[in-house]
Design a protein that fits this description.
It contains 9 helices and no strands. With 212 residues, the chain is an all-alpha fold.
Length: 212
């Protein structure tokens, strides 16, 4: 595996981390699992991480098929996905946490559900539109078998990182405090915005060669 491929996988991992912002979602995880004891909370963290991996791998494998079914070019989707990432990034840079991925109806429904690992944690809070858009773009841009395996491994590492963060969630939230989490959220928003701009620029450069 070449250094270039490793850089691609690392960029994909950082993009997912910025799009999902698990540190910013951690207070929501703590509040949703406040009624659970330690074994139940750990089980919820495990369920959420497995569900995120499954959702992203499905979109990774079926991404190009979805584009072909709707006759959408990769560059058009890249521009649309980049615009979505930028809009999410602006929301994150304003310091908002769960609202960017979860609407009020989903938020109210989640209160009455015992199993929060899949809904709303995995979908739509963690595997939201930003993460799904990034996954489809990378799957279509790097379609070889080696790249696909590498991207799947990257998703598995990312999901394992989410599991570890959620296991340590209460301690991290207590240590960072709301101010610390807001700072991290804004930094992740800045990174996500830059990634979105890169998607848009690359897509427009191909759609409109005269811009080059």
């Amino acid at each position: 595996m070449s250094n270039i491929e490793l850089v691609i996988f690392f960029q994909f991992f950082i993009g997912l981390f910025a799009a999902v912002n698990p540190l910013g979602i951690m207070p929501i995880f703590v509040s949703l699992t406040a009624h659970q004891d330690l074994p139940e909370r750990n089980k919820t963290a495990y369920t959420a991480s497995i569900a995120v991996a499954a959702i992203l791998v499905i979109f990774l494998l079926a991404g190009q098929l979805l584009l072909d079914v709707f006759s959408i070019s990769l560059d058009s989707f890249r521009v649309a996905g980049g615009m979505l990432l930028v809009s999410i990034a602006f929301t994150m840079m304003s310091g908002k946490l769960g609202e960017v991925q979860q609407n009020k109806q989903e938020q109210s429904e989640s209160i009455s559900r015992e199993q929060v690992g899949v809904v709303p944690l995995a979908m739509p809070l963690l595997a939201g539109p930003g993460a799904i858009s990034s996954t489809i773009v990378y799957s279509a841009r790097y379609p070889s078998s080696i790249d696909t395996i590498g991207l799947i491994v990257t998703i598995c590492f990312f999901s394992a990182g989410i599991w570890l963060l959620f296991r340590l969630g209460p301690s991290i939230v207590k240590y960072l405090g709301q101010t610390g989490i807001n700072v991290i959220t804004r930094i992740m928003g800045l990174i996500l915005g830059a990634l979105g701009i890169e998607f848009i620029a690359n897509g427009l450069r191909t759609l409109f060669p005269g811009l080059s």
